[in-house]
Amino acid sequence: MSRTHDQFLSIVAGALADPQRARPVGAMLLTSVHGIISFENGGLLEAKKWHVTGDQLVEMIIRTATAPQ
């Protein structure tokens, strides 16, 4: 694993109540943000249609990931 992955997982672990969840939550964050960016760049994530922006989606994902289990 690269140093940047280690740093990312350290940040994720620090934000979670259960640091053991850092890898699956980190994977969810990375893949979700990748999809959001792809949709935004492709013009498929229109705020008028979906009533949400990419930034708002990222905030929702982070809140969901860091909520107590």
Report on this structure.
It comes from Streptomyces xiamenensis. This is TetR family transcriptional regulator. This protein has 69 residues and is mainly α. The chain has one domain (3-66). The chain is built from four helices and no strands. Helix 1 crosses helix 2 (22-41) and helix 2 (22-41) packs antiparallel against helix 4 (54-66). It is flat, with a radius of gyration of 14 Å. The termini are far apart. The mean pLDDT is 93.
Count of helix runs: 4
Average residue pLDDT: 93
- Give me the secondary-structure category: mainly alpha
Stretches with pLDDT under 50, minimum 5 residues? none
Rg of Cα set: 14 Å
Largest sheet: none
- Shape summary: flat
Q: State the share of residues found in helices, binned by percent.
A: over 70%
End-to-end CA span: 28 Å
Order of helices and strands: HHHH
Query: Could you give the count of β-strands?
Result: 0
β content, as a range? under 5%
Instruction: Give the tally of structural domains.
Output: 1
List keywords for this structure.
4 helices, flat, mainly alpha
Q: How does the SSE layout of this entry go?
A:
Elements: H1 3-15, H2 22-41, H3 47-50, H4 54-66
Organism: Streptomyces xiamenensis
Protein name: TetR family transcriptional regulator
Gist of the model:
The protein is mostly helical and 69 residues long. It is 72% helix and 0% strand.
